[in-house]
Amino acid sequence: MILIIGGEAQGKRTFASSLFDKEPIIADCSVCEPKDIMTADLIISYHELIKRYTDKAEEITEELCKNNPEAVITLNEIGCGIIPIEKREREYREAAGRSGCIIAERAKEVYRLFCGKATKIK
Question: Which residue ranges form the domains of the chain, and what is each CATH number?
């Protein structure tokens, strides 16, 4: 498993795609269901799936790590900045952070992207 983190529009998808020597099966988490990420080669915008399934995020993430250990996953860093007033938004940020930690712990590689440049952190 490879985790790629960074802010919005920093080049995560482009970098992730460069890691494949074939056309990857892609799960776009802004529209896919949890079952779709269990077999995809490249899982993009994982934070979007977490937003829709905040209450089950850690459970889904554990299942992902178990069932798809070779996946490449992109995840926006969303925990920086002002703490939201809305409880649901705070819960989403917490779930995204915890899920990212679960994946990072199990990943063989973790990268942070900034301005299109990758820094390997694990």
Answer: 2-120 (3.40.50.300)
